[in-house]
Amino acid sequence: GKVYGMVVDKQKIQRSVRRSTNMMGRTLPIVIGVVLLVSMAIVFIPPSTYTKVFSGNTLIDPLIGAMLGSIVAGNPINSYIIAGELLSQGISLVAVTAFLVAWVTVGIVQFPAESMLLGKKFAIVRNTVSFVSSLLVAVLTTAMIEMIL
């Protein structure tokens, strides 16, 4: 048949749907495993643990925050709670921001699954760029907030 003036090959569409379904079936266990692993990390590492790691140094703390966020990883909803807890414990805004951005964008925990599904080179480049970006975003965000206030 024709759709929007284009010839549609039903066999190609059926083959594409089958391949997509097979790919989803293979990736679903990996995705579920990553979600469970990240959830366990969130539950077993309380926010009070993070406060012991930061030194109070404005140059080193963002790096520590980005490294910690990269290792632990999580979702944005939990990050607001953890951010509030860290800020209430006296950790600098730049360190908390670096932690949060890395927490959401960098994924050491998800790295094996990501490299298997998307390729090792892609996973390395994406995580490296995300880590460096987390530091830049933290510094720029904090500088902009200080300028405004």
Structure overview:
The protein is mainly alpha-helical and 149 residues long. The protein has helices spanning 10-44, 47-51, 61-72, 76-88, 93-105, 111-118, 120-148, and strands at 2-3, 6-7. A two-stranded antiparallel sheet has the order 1-2. A hairpin with a 2-residue loop joins strand 1 (2-3) and strand 2 (6-7). It starts with a strand and ends with a helix.
Fraction of residues in H or I helices: over 70%
- Ranges where pLDDT stays below 50 over 5 or more residues in a row are none
Ends: how far apart? 63 Å
**Computed structural class:** mainly alpha
The percent range for strand residues is: under 5%
Sheet with most strands: strand arrangement: 1-2
- Summed over residues and divided by their number, the pLDDT gives a mean of 86
Global outline: elongated
Summarize the helix and strand pattern as letters: EEHHHHHHH
Number of helices: 7
Most strands sheet = 2 strands, antiparallel
Topology, element by element:
Blueprint: E1 2-3, E2 6-7, H1 10-44, H2 47-51, H3 61-72, H4 76-88, H5 93-105, H6 111-118, H7 120-148
Antiparallel strand pairs: 1-2
Helix pairs in contact: 3-5, 3-7, 4-5, 5-7, 6-7
